[in-house]
Each structure stands twice: as C-alpha cells, then as structure tokens.
Design brief:
The chain is an alpha/beta fold. It has 6 helices and 7 strands, in the order E-H-E-E-E-H-E-E-H-H-H-H-E.
C-alpha cells in the first residue's frame, strides 16, 4: 500500500494540521511516512498545501509529480492540483468558494460541503476534521484509534478537551461525503 496525497487550500483552513494528523496516524500504524508542508509568508489567507505519503515500503522521495489523491479547499488549489491526480485517482473538495468545478472524467470526484456543515452545526473550528473524515471514509487506510492518537499528538495539550468535538466532526464528514457524477 502506498498513498500519495496533496491537501491544499488557504492558510487557516487546517490544511497543514490535516496532513500532520495523517502523518502521525501513519507512524502509529507502523507505516513509512513523509509530511512536507508548503505555504506562503502569510499567517492566514495565503495558500498552503502539504504533501503526505503513507506507505508499507520505504519512501524514496517526498516530492510528487503525480498524486493518488488531492483534497482541495479553494479555487487556486483546484486549478493547480486537479491536473496532477493520477488516472483513476481521487479528488475530494469543498464546493464553497469553488467557481470552476472539476472537469476530469478519468478520476473519482467527491465533495463535502464542510464549510456549510460546520457553520450550520456551530462547529466552524472543526471544518478540517469534517474534510478529514470524508477522506478517511473514501480511503480507509488508517485505523480510527490511530487517527485519534494522531489528533492527540498534533494538538497542543491545552486543546485536548476539544478531541471529542473533533472526533464528532470526523464522523460527520464520513456521513456527508458525496460522489459527484
């Protein structure tokens, strides 16, 4: 098993956190893992993306030309990363703020209206965990207990009281992901 994944959006959307949680979860599951963030100098509002590779075998390079999965949370990321998804790969996106929806016919496309869901449920700070839940439903490569351990490891201890809320958001994401036909 080898999963090459790019998560991309605006700074402040929890893109790097999602990648870090997946990376820690892979380590907890005795997988080989790389986590390579990329972001602009802005704290919030600039673009951010992270490449995560989780594999049963040694990983030769953290740099990707193609990916198995792209999670995109803004239009710039859609434009940049939709073309590099391998044929047969997966694109997961939040339609909020997307003006040009995906057009490829050789990949699987799913959406999760996480922004709207999180706002409606008054859980806006867990938007990214809903997206993560959607991804984990589509690609169940990591065990739930390892994901929760990865979440605990990536959150500062002062925020550990939010773990049950984040766990709920992951489950909400799993319930609301939809295939785009």
């Amino acid at each position: 098993m080898k999963e090459e994944l790019i998560i991309a959006g605006f700074g402040g959307q929890g893109v790097l956190s999602m990648g870090k949680i997946l990376a820690y979860s892979g380590i907890m599951q005795n997988k080989e893992v790389t986590w390579m963030p990329s972001y602009g100098p802005e704290m919030r509002g600039g673009t951010a993306n992270v490449t995560v590779i989780i594999s049963d075998k040694r990983i030769s390079s953290p740099i990707l030309q193609w990916c198995d999965t792209a999670i995109v949370l803004n239009q710039q990321s859609m434009d940049k990363f939709e073309p590099i998804i391998r044929k047969g790969g997966l694109l997961l996106y939040d339609p909020n703020g997307i003006s040009r929806h995906p057009t490829r016919k050789d990949i699987k496309i799913y959406s999760i209206a996480a922004t709207d869901l999180a706002n409606r449920m008054e859980m806006s700070r867990t938007f990214n965990m809903m997206v993560l839940g959607a991804y984990l439903k589509l690609k169940p490569i990591l065990d739930k207990e390892n994901v929760l351990q990865g979440l605990k490891k990536s959150l500062p201890e002062r925020h550990h009281h939010l773990i049950p809320l984040n766990e709920k958001a992951i489950e909400v994401g799993k319930e609301h992901v939809k295939e785009v036909v």
